Queue: 2 jobs
Job 1
Amino acid sequence: MAISTQSRASLIVLAALLLSPCPPASAQPASNPTGAIAADDRPHATPKQKAKAKKLAAVLAYTSVLLLIFVIGSWAIVRFSRRFQNYLVRGDKAPTQSDDVWAMHRLPPDAMEQLDEDDPA
């Protein structure tokens, strides 16, 4: 996937703007050419603005919690439905044969002879 020259130039300009240590000139206030803000000129938030900010913070917190619950719930539903689908597709299991249950636990025919040869008593 090749990047065109115009796209490459756009990415370089965007990276330069994002990585620059100072904001662009248009972001600085026009009233003070040095860019320094005096202690008395700093804006103060009114109680109405503070209350609005608290409400927005609460809305953001509740929204993020609800989004997290939705994502986890969606994941759980998808996981359950896939497993249930596999269970349904699998079908009935064949019952285990019970003709000779102990056949796998029997000793080989020559095991007793070997046991007698190994026993010195």
Note: The helical segments are 5-19, 47-90, 111-118.
Job 2
Amino acid sequence: MGLDPELDDFIIGDECGGCSGTIFLDGTPKWVEIVFKDIVACPGAPAPPNGSHLLPQAFPCTWFIPFGATGSIFWDFSTGDSVAGAGDGTWSFFLGSNILLCKTDFTNFLTCNGGAPKGGTGGTAEIFWGPTIHP
């Protein structure tokens, strides 16, 4: 399924033209891995989604899985910015973005103060694909 890091069984998905030939040298991946590290839970929030999550391609420039009741974990650059995030529908744990279209590493800019319920603060996310991903 393109997930074993020991095999060269990379699966090409639907082309995302924005990054073809830049970060996607062998074609747009069908699967990516997002690794969250060091997200700290805000007071009263459940544990944040630190660790590795495999995301299937949902649209040409969007990968995501459902998370919690109505939330998701995602990587998206269909709107011109590169964005990674995680929320369970109630709590927002991670949101990182960059105006660089094909960015693959992010810093969480959420804080525990004010606004909608924040579940996490701090931490990083990094995106991998191909034979380097590890379930």
Note: The two ends are 11 Å apart (CA to CA).
